[in-house]
Amino acid sequence: MALTVSAVVLFLAIVLILLRTGYLRFGPGLAAALLGFFVASTGIAPTINRTLSSIATALAHITA
After folding, report:
1. pLDDT band at 62 (very low <50, low <70, confident <90, very high)
2. Is 49 exposed, middle or buried (0-12, 13-18, 19+ CB in 10 A)?
3. In Å, what is the CA distance from 38 to each residue of 12, 18, 20, 53?
């Protein structure tokens, strides 16, 4: 659960920065957010969540 909240905060921060700097306009940003919302309600959402969790686990196990 912590990964999900962190990813949401990270992506929200990125989108807000892009909106404020002018690299992303409001219309395309809204379309991307709605796409994400609708993808989350499809059958591919669990696969995306598992993939992100696997990546986070792999990154956590990397030692410097």
Report:
1. confident
2. middle
3. 17, 22, 25, 20
Closest CA to 16 of 32, 29, 31: 29
The H or E element that residue 61 is part of is: none
pLDDT band at residue 59 using 50, 70 and 90 as cut-offs: confident
Provide the residue type at 42 as one letter: T
Amino acid at 28: P
Q: Are 15 and 33 in contact (CB under 8 A)?
A: yes
For the entire predicted model, the pTM comes to: 0.59
